[in-house]
Amino acid sequence: MTATTTLPRPAQPLRRTPARNRPAARARRYTKAIILWALAVGFLLPFVWMISSSLKRNLDVFSIPVRWIPDPVQWANYAEVWFGEASIARYFGNSLIVSLIGVVGDLTTSSMAGYAFARLSFAGRDKIFLLYLATAIVPMQLLLIPRFMYFQQLGLYNTLWALILPGIFTVFGTFLIRQFFVAAPAELGEAARIDGANEWQVFWRIYLPLARPVLAALAIISFVGSWNDYETPLIMLSDKSSYTVPLGLTQFVDSDGGLSAGLAMAASVSSVVPIMIVFLIFQRNFIAALAHSGLK
C-alpha cells in the first residue's frame, strides 16, 4: 500500500471590502460617529451648564440666551459653599461616613452570601435565594415608614446608623456576586479542598481574589446609591448637623422658595466630584464585572 500524501491547502487570501463598497462603509462609519458624538454632547450639556452656572452671579444663571462662559467669574461661590455660613463640609463628612461604611458592609455581606448561594450545598438553597430575590420587588418607598418606626424604637432615629444599616444588605449585590461565583471554575475549590483547605480558606484565598472586578463594580454602584440617596435621610434625619449632601443642597433654598442658584450649582458640582473619583478608580473593572456576571 502506498501512503497518500495530503498537500497543505493554500492560505486563504484576506477578504477585503470591494473598492465600490468602501465609500458606503466609510459613510456608515461616519454617520454612526456623528450620531454618537451628538448623543454624548446632549448628555454632557446639562453638566456643562451646571459648571458654568456655578461660576455666575444669581441674576446671570437663568439669563436668556444662555451665556456659557461666565462674565465675571464668581470663584467666591465655591468659597461661600465650603467656608461660609451654609458650609457643606459637614454634610460631605456625613455622606462619606455613610457611603464608605455602607460600601464595606455591602461588599462583606454580599460576597459571603453570594458564595454561600453559589458554592455551598444546603437544604432549600435555591428556594431561599428565590425568596431573597423576591424582596427586591417591594418598592423602597414602602419600607421607609416601617424602618422609621423600627429605628425609632431602637433609639437610632436621627443618627447616621439609620442610613448605614439598611445599606449593608442589598439584594442586587448578592445576586451580582453569586452570578460571578457560579461562573467561576469549580475545579479550583475542589483542588484546594484536596490539599486540606477548609471552606473559609477556599472562599478567602481562592474565590474572593478572583472576584475583585465584580467587587469593584459593586463598590461603585453601592457608593453612588448611598451618596445620592435623598428619601431615606429625609425621613430618618431631623437634625441639620446629621444631614447628608442631598439634604444639604436644600439649604440654598429659603423659606419663600427663593434659590441661590450660583451657590446651589457650586454645591452640586462639588457633590459630583467624589462620585467621579470613585468611578475613575474602578472604571476598568466595571464593564468586565458585568460581563462575567452574566448581566448584559
Automatic annotation (TrEMBL):
<keyword id="KW-0472">Membrane</keyword>
<keyword id="KW-1003">Cell membrane</keyword>
<feature type="transmembrane region" description="Helical">
    <location>
        <begin position="96"/>
        <end position="117"/>
    </location>
</feature>
<keyword id="KW-0812">Transmembrane</keyword>
<dbReference type="GO" id="GO:0005886">
    <property type="term" value="C:plasma membrane"/>
</dbReference>
<dbReference type="GO" id="GO:0055085">
    <property type="term" value="P:transmembrane transport"/>
</dbReference>
<feature type="transmembrane region" description="Helical">
    <location>
        <begin position="160"/>
        <end position="181"/>
    </location>
</feature>
<keyword id="KW-0813">Transport</keyword>
<comment type="similarity">
    <text>Belongs to the binding-protein-dependent transport system permease family.</text>
</comment>
<feature type="transmembrane region" description="Helical">
    <location>
        <begin position="202"/>
        <end position="227"/>
    </location>
</feature>
<dbReference type="InterPro" id="IPR000515">
    <property type="entry name" value="MetI-like"/>
</dbReference>
<dbReference type="InterPro" id="IPR035906">
    <property type="entry name" value="MetI-like_sf"/>
</dbReference>
<feature type="transmembrane region" description="Helical">
    <location>
        <begin position="129"/>
        <end position="148"/>
    </location>
</feature>
<feature type="region of interest" description="Disordered">
    <location>
        <begin position="1"/>
        <end position="24"/>
    </location>
</feature>
<keyword id="KW-0762">Sugar transport</keyword>
<feature type="transmembrane region" description="Helical">
    <location>
        <begin position="30"/>
        <end position="51"/>
    </location>
</feature>
<feature type="transmembrane region" description="Helical">
    <location>
        <begin position="259"/>
        <end position="282"/>
    </location>
</feature>
<keyword id="KW-1133">Transmembrane helix</keyword>
<dbReference type="Pfam" id="PF00528">
    <property type="entry name" value="BPD_transp_1"/>
</dbReference>
<feature type="domain" description="ABC transmembrane type-1">
    <location>
        <begin position="92"/>
        <end position="282"/>
    </location>
</feature>
<protein>
    <submittedName>
        <fullName>Multiple sugar transport system permease protein</fullName>
    </submittedName>
</protein>
